[in-house]
Amino acid sequence: MSAQIPITVRDRISDKAAKTLDIVAKFVEEDCIPADTVFEAQVGVGDARWKAHPKILEDLKQKARSLGLWNMFLPKGHYKESPGFTNLEYGLMAEWLGKSRVASEAVNCAAPDTGNMEVLARYGNDAQKAEWLRPLMDGVIRSAFLMTEPQVASSDARNIELKMVRDGDHYVLNGSKWWSSGAGDPRCKIYIVMGKSDPNNKDPYKQQSVILVPSGTKGITIHRMLSVYGYDDAPHGHGHITFHNVRVPASNLVLGEGRGFEIIQGRLGPGRIHHTMRTIGAAERALEWMLMRINDPKKTPFGKQLREHGVILEWVAKSRLEIDAARLVVLNAAIKMDEQGPKAALKEIAQAKVLVPQTALTVIDRAVQSFGGAGVSQDTPLANMWAQIRTLRLADGPDEVHLQQMGRNENRRGKEVAAKIAAQQAKAEELLKKYSVTRSELGSNIKH
Amino acid sequence: MSAQIPITVRDRISDKAAKTLDIVAKFVEEDCIPADTVFEAQVGVGDARWKAHPKILEDLKQKARSLGLWNMFLPKGHYKESPGFTNLEYGLMAEWLGKSRVASEAVNCAAPDTGNMEVLARYGNDAQKAEWLRPLMDGVIRSAFLMTEPQVASSDARNIELKMVRDGDHYVLNGSKWWSSGAGDPRCKIYIVMGKSDPNNKDPYKQQSVILVPSGTKGITIHRMLSVYGYDDAPHGHGHITFHNVRVPASNLVLGEGRGFEIIQGRLGPGRIHHTMRTIGAAERALEWMLMRINDPKKTPFGKQLREHGVILEWVAKSRLEIDAARLVVLNAAIKMDEQGPKAALKEIAQAKVLVPQTALTVIDRAVQSFGGAGVSQDTPLANMWAQIRTLRLADGPDEVHLQQMGRNENRRGKEVAAKIAAQQAKAEELLKKYSVTRSELGSNIKH
Amino acid sequence: MSAQIPITVRDRISDKAAKTLDIVAKFVEEDCIPADTVFEAQVGVGDARWKAHPKILEDLKQKARSLGLWNMFLPKGHYKESPGFTNLEYGLMAEWLGKSRVASEAVNCAAPDTGNMEVLARYGNDAQKAEWLRPLMDGVIRSAFLMTEPQVASSDARNIELKMVRDGDHYVLNGSKWWSSGAGDPRCKIYIVMGKSDPNNKDPYKQQSVILVPSGTKGITIHRMLSVYGYDDAPHGHGHITFHNVRVPASNLVLGEGRGFEIIQGRLGPGRIHHTMRTIGAAERALEWMLMRINDPKKTPFGKQLREHGVILEWVAKSRLEIDAARLVVLNAAIKMDEQGPKAALKEIAQAKVLVPQTALTVIDRAVQSFGGAGVSQDTPLANMWAQIRTLRLADGPDEVHLQQMGRNENRRGKEVAAKIAAQQAKAEELLKKYSVTRSELGSNIKH
Amino acid sequence: MSAQIPITVRDRISDKAAKTLDIVAKFVEEDCIPADTVFEAQVGVGDARWKAHPKILEDLKQKARSLGLWNMFLPKGHYKESPGFTNLEYGLMAEWLGKSRVASEAVNCAAPDTGNMEVLARYGNDAQKAEWLRPLMDGVIRSAFLMTEPQVASSDARNIELKMVRDGDHYVLNGSKWWSSGAGDPRCKIYIVMGKSDPNNKDPYKQQSVILVPSGTKGITIHRMLSVYGYDDAPHGHGHITFHNVRVPASNLVLGEGRGFEIIQGRLGPGRIHHTMRTIGAAERALEWMLMRINDPKKTPFGKQLREHGVILEWVAKSRLEIDAARLVVLNAAIKMDEQGPKAALKEIAQAKVLVPQTALTVIDRAVQSFGGAGVSQDTPLANMWAQIRTLRLADGPDEVHLQQMGRNENRRGKEVAAKIAAQQAKAEELLKKYSVTRSELGSNIKH
């Protein structure tokens, strides 16, 4: 909550944001986390899980709205619908949302709707906004973003190949998508689909378009749902969806043919800030559970509480340190995005994208280990959190792709830096002469 | 298979074992791994999963027996029922069994039955053997070992507190057990239960007894099954079981009252060799899947196959190295156990217990990462393997408990080593005098 | 320089500080780094190294003063002698100073003088200030802080046992000190010495006092100098010094008898910020050298430049990320110290103290590895930098002591957190009832 | 000593080798380690260090010969001069030799002489053997192997470019060499030099030749010695040597023109076994020092001995485990080399080459950390050991080059493995049909 904001950023947090942050924190801890249990129970078992819309969620949404918590993710200044928070301010709220499974949806800030609403708000025309953005903003429907495909290496988006062929005033879509997160939810009414509309364009970044496809369109089949380390993540889920001659009005095209890359790039920046801040919240919750466990008076192996054993306090200290460092990295990226825009913040966002999930996985795994068997089971939130966050090392490109790109960018300094060092060395030689002194090279007097 | 046995141990492998190993390898690769898919399909969905006994398993068992593959785990020399393999020889076979979900059970070498059969063979009386060991050896029933309890720190087995009270010629059991692996299987007919029969015994290692409890006994409730990450591991499963006034004939006691610790300690050594060798097999399979993926001609991010990208070949090399090193550690432990018994091999077994799961988790996680989304889903065996093996860092005591114990043992050398170094330093001083030379201490001529 | 200040802190940097930072950066890169070579050459060889005062250093000091760079470390607001920078502002300058061996001394901001000047400025009386602070502020003499002792575990300062016995209006000192950094310099005129003046005081934090001892006092012997991975660090050096009946006027006592702990605690905060920021500068320089090497057109193993090989760009990316994260951690600590004082910033300072040296060592070691043989030799600054920074994981207490303390502090939340989770769980049970829904426990319908 | 031989290899150790191993162990612990101090004292200071031949070394050599310890490295069966030990057997002895600085030379098993003697014994003609092998075998002279060059990426030996031009019955050599280890020793009389004799040969592996160059030949200058971190490693040292029109008789050519690669490849296998086993010995010694320290009754931070603090025992346990695993890896490689030759053992040797130095560095660094300041100084052998072993991650090719090669080799299985998995998947489909069962795909019944 507001009292825990790192001092570095505190002066950038408005009073309104600080107050809202406190309300978010209280709402998450007192309402949402307890509701998680009910939500899971209401989702039920078997195929019913994909038809469920747990009632408690609607009750939470109502409460959230009454508390003034709604759509906080929409950044200040860019959208008239925005409640007026910066990415930094919302980032701090997102951390709290990340502690609970239902919290983000309860305040209408859940992925992938947030990114999808940004796409519609930024790139959609008025008709598209009226039809899809309005109900999304109202939390009446949900949405999915269909990009990744099973048969190609989608980490390089140029490989995406779902066919989009113009036929009169329609496009006809054929192909497969997977990791279509949110597609399991019965309220998911709209798919934002990336496909290849111009496969022969010489510029590989102009071959793709984005189009809006109502989820009930003929020819669409939810082939199956993907599991994540055994979890189905229902009702949300991760869909594997096939398109067979799916006809969509050409007016559903977003921004224009060949502008797919433009759209997906604009979409990623804020989403990565949200994701990473939620992930930090998850790590904080894991640390809290770990603290609970190691101080549990009933668990005393070898006559001592866990906190008194060997490495445990060092794990706590490292977890604290690593979370705190990771948070500063994300907040720095958020400020850069707020003040200079997402393009200028590319490096900082990429750093957060790579650092935070690895940090959180380490912290959560320590918590699992300190719980013993309970840690891997349904009795703590830890195993599920670990599985969800493990996917973040892959989603939107695996760590290694980002690291290569970051390495290439940093390496651009190579030539300039080499020149600087060469100049320093030349100057050193000059100075040696000026001071009439020679390097005393080790062993230079050896005469064998 | 036999051609890949590390040269260090090859001369200890009999011709018969080498031949059997080749048969095991072929059976696993050609029959069991394909059968895993059918097994999972036959297990079905929902509550039916806990009633299933997939037909394919019985067919595999029949084939296995016809190939002479049955009960290979029972070590040579100790049991007349043994097919005559050493722990080393069986260890090499277990590696192959670990590549498939059904293979161990298909050759009647599945945990926890193996350890339970050893308990019965070593400590059971004739009646107990006839009733329970015989059908277990025949693969007609299955068994569970009930030790860990939810409400105490079971990593210190002295904390185990299920009440066992003598009442005439019966014991009455009250309490809770969890992580009762295998209890979900409808064919699981016998529980080997550890409980506290003499809570006031001054020797905390004499308070516990082990008793045989038929799974259908009145008062036993399978409260629920525990998940491992999101997997239920059905029909096997991990049970949370409650005992309410469960009456068991006193003749079901194993070995005698107060001898529980003796029994569990004898049980662990070979089991750890089996587990770790199976785990190495799993790591090998993960590496194979990774190799498949990085050479997949259809997956070419940024114009190159994955094997040509950045760190991938280094991951392959490290995985190869780490698996090979871990295998040598286990085989060394197996030889020590074969030649000097499990007590002498405590250090070596503990090293394998700690090293192997961590190694395998690292290898599997690299494979997951190289697969992208498919890696965490049901489309590869990787996510499930990772989850199963993650529990091995906790089962039979968390790594940290073992490391503390290992550290204490190694530290016993402290005094002797300190004396040796002191003697060396004294001798050095003597020698300096003898050679009339003084240490040239840095800066010893400083006179400011 | 000022263009690279992390955006998070930029608005806290005054124009004057930004301008000074640019001057510092230019001075370091263009004057100090080339001068490092001359400095080392002027130090010479053998015993002469401890008598050297390289002329180039005085020339640099003159230039520094002419540029307005002098004593920037003295924090704004606390001392009238301060040039008016916050710890944050000076921290950014210290990063640049850390790239060169001579730079800190050239601007009179070198340890241990900085900490010693703070002690004198804060705790010294007027006479002490006139005699010692004045010439230190003028860069005319140097100083050492004598705390650690060879025969005890000094990481727990209560163990320090150099005897300080009052004898009339003098104290008589007997004992040994080591790691007395700077004591090798012939210009080191004053030792600030911690000793035990009241060994029987019940409060172990009141047994120690701090006294000023002129380095030439009778009875003091520089026994020898300690090496750091083979480096002597001359003329500065790390002294092992013995005190034999050293008589010092009682008026040299700082603050008063028994107040040693108070003094050393006040001394550490800012010093840790300085040290860690300099260390970040060293890491930046190592990364620059690495970039030079991997782009060297003459070094092409296997037909490709190093930057095109396997893991190299990932090393670059990780180094960039880790340095950037570590810097944010230090700057956050600096701001906290500036705004709330060193006590409030204890956690943040400890985090920087532990994180930064490990980060820098990792970065430098990658650079060493990319250089091959040159990396470990005198041909790059890398090996020496690594050795110097390795000591920071030990100096002022080993990492492990800090981590234990940090773990204990974080663990203070244990009780509160456990209560919160218990309340959440109770509320969840309530809600389940309210919504008339039950948890669907896995396997709870098993009836075997 | 022989009682500690891993059980896995014990049956391959002859009685003679076991006895010799015990003698080696005793000689190292009781004679050589104390002599290390005297050796360092006798080497002296300044330029004298490169002229020194410490007397104690000759005394040790005499004692070693009287104990029957001489040239044990020369493998059994290959050389008539061999004392008859396998690489495995000598490897176990090399572990002990690695604990002391002087021990290897005392028994005439020091690098680079061992590899050089192998070159001469295997590839030299009778005249070359008489002139150089004989005195080397007698320990009368020493030798250096000049391969690496400062101006190229020598990790790819094809880049080596020292010019060797035939001129009548001589070769004329021009160029630079560095990391010429041992060249600092006044007794180093012979250089084995690799150069480019046929730069235009189409086969880049035929351009190089190896020639014997007496160290006093006209035109050779020891330009300087390279330091390793701050150590000079005198009198042995690491030379940077220039060749200016150095004329050598053509009869000094080894094996024939263009056969340089053949020679260096034959030279590396056994040397890597020796190096890695010595490194394991160093790690063992570091662990012993650590055990001494953590049990030191005088070092009690916060009222407890170090062994009772936090992570220390876990460090001990991990060190024990990691050393033991690394040793098994080397011994497995040694056996493979003994039984199937160095080519067959390439994989195993490369694994040892990469694994062992990293393991030892980790163990030594833990020991340094547990010592505090003493660990980085001249007061323990640790800092020096660390620096020496750090070079092994670079010598004979950096780790990364080996890992890439190992990855490529392992990846050769890619196609075969992919085919196997494809066959398994096809068989699974068949079996599903045969058993009339279908996969129950998650969410496949979703109909939204």
UniProtKB/TrEMBL annotation, chains A, B, C, D:
InterPro entries: Acyl-CoA_dehydrogenase, Acyl-CoA_Oxase/DH_mid-dom, Acyl-CoA_Oxase/DH_mid-dom_sf, AcylCo_DH-like_C, AcylCo_DH/oxidase_C, AcylCoA_DH/ox_N, AcylCoA_DH/ox_N_sf, AcylCoA_DH/oxidase_NM_dom_sf. It comes from the Eukaryota. Signal peptide: none annotated. Keywords: FAD, Flavoprotein, Oxidoreductase. Residues 144-246 form the Acyl-CoA oxidase/dehydrogenase middle domain. Its cofactor is FAD. Residues 258-409 form the Acyl-CoA dehydrogenase/oxidase C-terminal domain. Residues 47-139 form the Acyl-CoA dehydrogenase/oxidase N-terminal domain. One of its GO terms (biological process) is fatty acid beta-oxidation using acyl-CoA dehydrogenase. The keyword Oxidoreductase applies. GO terms for cellular component: cytoplasm. The keyword Plastid does not apply. GO terms for molecular function: acyl-CoA dehydrogenase activity; flavin adenine dinucleotide binding. Belongs to the acyl-CoA dehydrogenase family. Homodimer. This is Acyl-CoA dehydrogenase/oxidase. It comes from Triangularia verruculosa.
